Structures are given as structure tokens and as C-alpha cells.
Amino acid sequence: MADSARINAQKIGLPAMDLSIAFPQATPASVFPPSASDYYQFDDLLSAEERSLRKKVREVMHREVAPIMAEYWEKAEFPFHIVPKLADLAVAGGTIKGFGCPGLSITGSAIVTAEIARVDASCSTFILVHSSLAMLTIALCGSEAQKEKYLPSLAKLKTIACWALTEPDYGSDASSLKTTATKVAGGWVLNGQKRWIGNSTFADLLVIFARNTSTNQINAFIVKKGSPGLKVTKIENKIGLRMVQNGDILMKDVFVPDEDKLAGVNSFQDTNKVLAVSRVMVAWQPIGIAMGVFDMCHRYLKERKQFGAPLAAFQLNQEKLVRMLGNIQAMLLVGWRLCKLYESGKMTTGHASLGKAWTSLKAREVVSLGRELMGGNGILADFLVAKAFCDLEPIFSYEGTYDINSLVTAREITGIASFKPAILAKSTRSRL
User: Fold this and answer.
1) Which of 140, 139, 244 is nearest to 199 (CA)?
2) Could you say which of 125, 224, 316, 381 would form a disulfide bridge with 387 (CB–CB 3.0 to 4.6 Å)?
3) With contact defined as beta carbons under 8 Å apart, do 370 and 296 qualify?
4) Cα separations in angstroms, 100 against 97, 147, 148, 150, 170
């Protein structure tokens, strides 16, 4: 008997009971709760177009994603059948104008990020990687020919892209990357390895950052799926963003023609043009996650009864719910102000880093409180909070960890960089 058959034969009991029968006292997240977190009427700060966009995204996420997200999260598989529904929203490309892209305001794009993350953080990351990293790199750093060739299809999600900067040895210290690009007749040859690259296992286009062996500077290239020498494998056993297909990328003599080198990336500093926008978007992911957790807890506490009263009637629970609500109001206003600073050309790297660091920190508190409020049901993905609790952890680390983003802001306000340990910096100076 095969191992799998033997294991199945040893199972005892019936298949899992439908949740509506097993626990009829509360509504699961597959029927997503209405929004209850806009206590300070943040809605008034949005334009009519931004409010309409939020409503459209919210309806699609409630209808198409909420019913299936726990199942796919548990399986650690991406629900490819919803991609056409996401494409119909016409939000891929975000702030990019022309080439079939929506040309949203950065506030509108941020609202989209939050609304998708409110229901499912994995879908939000899928769009963010594709749109605010890969597409934006092509839009900001590519030639007109490259934009015309790639952006229209990417905007319709007919082709999917990923963005590969991080390497096994270099996460926070990304500028030290080792992947190489060597000039040859008619193009470039890439060698190296990337890790944690979202969408990479199924992406049609891979935006790869590599060190030019002649100049020692960082360049970027568009690599096609299936290129000889390119191998992409899925990273298994994640506890967060399980629907996102993060991959390891191995490149051995991968040829890239000259027309697929992005001319606008000539140093690591050029990546900051992209990261400035993407970090704003990432700052809105924790906002959306926190909103969804609050909305779920708000409904749950009114439905679930103990000691003859709804959980919402107990003082300790009310205090936690209000603390969550207060965090969300502050997070919304920080995120909104960050967008306005960007639109006015006043946003600095430190502003973006503080926004991402602070919203992810406060969201951590929100989901932790939500986990407490739900008791045992707080560990079930069926009620969103356990899933959101886990999904927030990778977001706390990617696009700059909380600590690294804090140091970026600290460097800006003090004029002193403290990324390298003092003992290492002293050792370096002594050798000069």
C-alpha cells in the first residue's frame, strides 16, 4: 500500500463539518463584513473618483475573493481563476499614465492596495509586485519601445511580471547583490541567484537586477519565462502570504538581448525612483489588513454570546476594540498625508520609510488584539484574523524591515547613518 493510501486508511471520522453547522453563532469571513472602521470620516478626504474606485474594488473582493481565500491560503496555492476579475478592475499599473494603464492618483492607487488587503493580503501582494514594482520599473526606467511592447499586456493582466532584487545573502543590504551581468555580442549574460521573489513561479516577465561586470554598477533586465538557463522553484512551508508564490530564481548563463536591458537603471540609486512609490503602497497594505480585522471583530463581538450577553457588551473587549479603531484612524491619516507629500513633490525617502515602518507596527498591534478578542476562533483562517495575523508578518519585513526603515528615517533626521555596526565601521576606517 502506498504511503498516502495508508495514511488515508488510518484517518478516523467524517469530513469537516460545514462551519454554519459546526459554529452557527458567528458569520465567517467568506461572507465579508461591511466596513465599520472609518470612524473619523476619512471618506471626506477622498475625491469622488477615489470613493467610486474604492467601492468597485470592495465589491469585487467581497464577491470573488472572500468566499475562496481561506481554502487557497490553506493549500498555499494561488487562485488563478480570479485574475480576470482583478483585471476587470483596471487598476494594474496604478499611477502609470498611457500604454493602457489607468493613470490613478497615488491616493487612488493606495486605496486600491488597502481595499484588496482588507479582504486578502496575498492578492494585494500579487498586484503590488506586478504593478508597483515590475510595471513601474519599466514605466520609469524603460525606453518608449519597451513601454509600448510590455505595459499594455501587463496592464490587462494578460501577462504577469515579478521583480527580483533580493538574494539569499542580501536582503536588507540589497545594494551588495552578487548576481552579475556580462556584456556579450548582441546582449548580456546573467548569472546568479534571487530569493523570495513573489509571482516568480508563474511570471511571464522577470525584472532582474544584476551587477554590471564592467562598471560594477547595478543594472536591470527583462528576462522572459522559459529562457535557457533560468530555473524558478517555489519556496515551501511559509506561514504567511501563503497564496503568494514566492520563488528561488537560479540563473546560469541566461542570455538577455540588448533591447531588454532597462536603460534607466545605471546604479542602485535608480531603484529608489521605484521604491519611493512602492513603499507608499506597502504602507497601505497594513492599513487594509487592520481595517479587515477590525471589521471582522466588530461583527463577531456582536454575534458571539457568552455569559448571556454579546461579547461586545464586556468592558475589556470594548477597550480593545476602541484601541484597534484608534490605531486605524491614525494609520489612515499617516497614509493619506504620505500620498499628499508625494503628489506635491515633498515626500522624502525618510517619509516613505517612516510610513511603512509605523503602519506595519500599528497593524501588528491591531491583529494581535483581534486574535485575543476572538479567543479560540482567532486561530481559524475561516474568521480572517489568524490568516491576517500570519500575513502581516512578511509585510512587516519586506520592502525594508521595521528596523531598517526606522534607520533610514533616523539617518534623514540626524544626518548620521548607523546601518553598519559601530565596531565594523571603526575597523573599516582603521584600514584606510
Assistant:
1) 244
2) 381
3) yes
4) 8, 10, 9, 10, 35
Amino acid of residue 335:
G
Q: Residue 186: helix, strand or coil by DSSP?
A: coil
Cell numbers that stand for 388 in this block: 491576517
CA 73/CA 363 separation, integer angstroms: 20
Give the number of other CB atoms < 10 A from CB of residue 178: 13
Q: pLDDT tens digits, residue range 304-356?
A: 999 999 999 999 999 999 999 999 999 999 999 999 999 999 999 999 999 99
Neighbours of 424 (CB within 10 A): 10
- Residue partners of 423: CB distance under 8 A and separation at least 6: none
Give kind and range of the element (H or E) at residue 228: none
pLDDT in tens, 143-162: 999 999 999 999 999 999 99
Q: Which amino acid would we find at residue 13?
A: G
Task: Tell how strand 205-212 and strand 180-184 pair up.
Answer: parallel
Concatenating the DSSP letter of every residue in 41-79 gives: -GGGGS-HHHHHHHHHHHHHIIIIITTTHHHHHHHT---
- Give the SS3 label for residue 165: coil
Cα-only R_g, the chain: 23
* Torsion angle of C-alpha atoms 305, 307, 313, 316, degrees rounded to 10: -110
Q: Which residues contact 401 (CB under 8 A, 6 or more apart)?
A: 172
- Quickly tell me which residue has 521604491 as its cell: 275
Looking up cell 486574535 gives 371
- How far apart are alpha carbons 175 and 106 in whole angstroms? 27
Local structure of residue 26 (DSSP, 8 states): S
Instruction: Quickly list H helices, 242-314.
Output: 272-303
pTM: 0.93
Residues 6+ apart with CB under 8 A from 217: 211, 266, 267, 268
Integer Cα distance of 195 and 400 in angstroms: 15
- Name every residue whose Cβ is closer than 8 Å to that of residue 268 and which is 6 or more positions away in sequence: 174, 175, 217, 218
Compute the distance between CA of residue 376 and CA of residue 430 in angstroms, rounded to an integer.
Answer: 57
CA distance linking residue 393 with residue 361, whole number of Å: 10
Report pLDDT digits (tens) over 38-52. Answer: 999 999 999 999 999
CB 246 within 8 A of CB 200: yes
